[in-house]
Amino acid sequence: MNNYYCYILKLNPSFYRNEDWTEKETELVGVHFNYLKDLTNKGNVFLAGRTVNEPMTDKDLGIVIIEAESEDEARGYMENDPAIIGNLMTAEFFEFSLALLRK
Questions:
Q1: Which of 34, 46, 49, 50 is nearest to 2 (CA)?
Q2: Is the pTM of the predicted complex or chain greater than 0.85?
Q3: Contact 9, 91 (CB under 8 A)
Q4: Which of 21, 33, 34, 52 is the most exposed place for a label (fewest CB within 10 A)?
């Protein structure tokens, strides 16, 4: 039986305002999205999304819920997230208990 884990993403504060983004950050968020999309298609990402505010603040976040056989496997997905590697976002890892799921 697989376990659930999640990581909470926070945007680097220097990118809260859209006008502070360059082509590099825009490209990186696309690579991040495609990374999560690939993991979703493979069945590893259960859910991914973010809060939507403009401009973003320190209260805004993204969340990725992962289904994995082990904590090491799930941490590996987080640590290889291009947004983390590229310092666009930071992440905090948690074990996650899925209590209710809509049918």
A1: 46
A2: yes
A3: yes
A4: 52
